[in-house]
Structures are given as C-alpha cells and as structure tokens.
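Students often ask why we bother encoding 3D structure as a string. The short answer is that it lets us treat folding as translation between two languages. Here is a chain of 166 residues written in the first language.
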Amino acid sequence: MKTRLSPVLVFLTVFLLAITVKLLVIDILYVAGPSMSPVITPGTLVAEFRLEWGIPVPFKNAYFTRWGTPTAGDIVIYPWQGRLVVKRCVAGPGEKLVFSNEKGYSVRSGAREIPLNREQYHKLKNVQQVPDGMIFAVGDNMAESHDSRDYGFVSVDSIRGTVLWK
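And here it is in the second language, the structure alphabet:
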C-alpha cells in the first residue's frame, strides 16, 4: 500500500527549497540603468549566480565560506546606496594602479586605461594598489556609470554574485 504525501507538506518542501535556492544559489534581477551598456542594456533580466566565490550569508555582507575572489574582467553584483548594481571588476585585491594626469586624467590597471575626471583623479591618485579585501569596479559604459571612480573600492564581502546569463 502506497503512502500519499500531504499536499501541504509537498508545498512547504517546495517553498523552502525555492527560498533556499534564491537566497544562496541563483536570483533573477532586472537591470534598470545604462552603466553596463552595450553588454547589459537597461530593461534586461539577468541571472545572478551567488556561489561564484563562496557561500553567502543571506542579508549580510559576508560569506559562510569563500573559495575565490573576483578578478579583472568578472561582472559583479553588489549593493550600493540601498540598491543592487552591476559593474565589471577591473582590478582585484593587491593589483597595481597607475594614475596619470598627462593628456587628461586616467588610471591604468594592467593593460586597461580608465578615464577619470579631475575630482576622481584627486580623490584616488595617492592609491598605488587595490587594498586587500577590495576590488575596483567600473561600468562598461564609463560615461554613464557611477562606480569605484566616484565612491571608492568595493568590499569583496559585499559582492553578492556574478551575472550567469543575460
């Protein structure tokens, strides 16, 4: 004789599993701004993979355990001023930054040269490398992006995940 599971028990099990997956593994986000254009355009839905660099603690800027750190080229998602933002990591912890005020203001990380305005240059120019536990994150559409050039380095612990698909 087969035992039939209660519909309430099945519902609760599926509900708890879905919440766990959303909080720890994958989430779907709506991109509103143009800072990552043309790679990610406004109005796009993206899948955020939350296990790329470790197991996040839900609702906190921390990880239960970490097995990696974003590197140059990775697209990262993190909270800033009460909302989530999507940017590209251009330099990871310990990476060298070279500032220049010849032919305008800029900072170079590896082979990538990033334009700065006067205020950004003067705020960051004395930093020689990305501090430990931090990244330098910039939008691909630099003219429309408010990013590390404006508000400084981003804590690795605050990074929620990466874009899995767009």
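Translate back mentally: Residues 7-24 form the longest helix (18 residues). Keep this in mind for the problem set.
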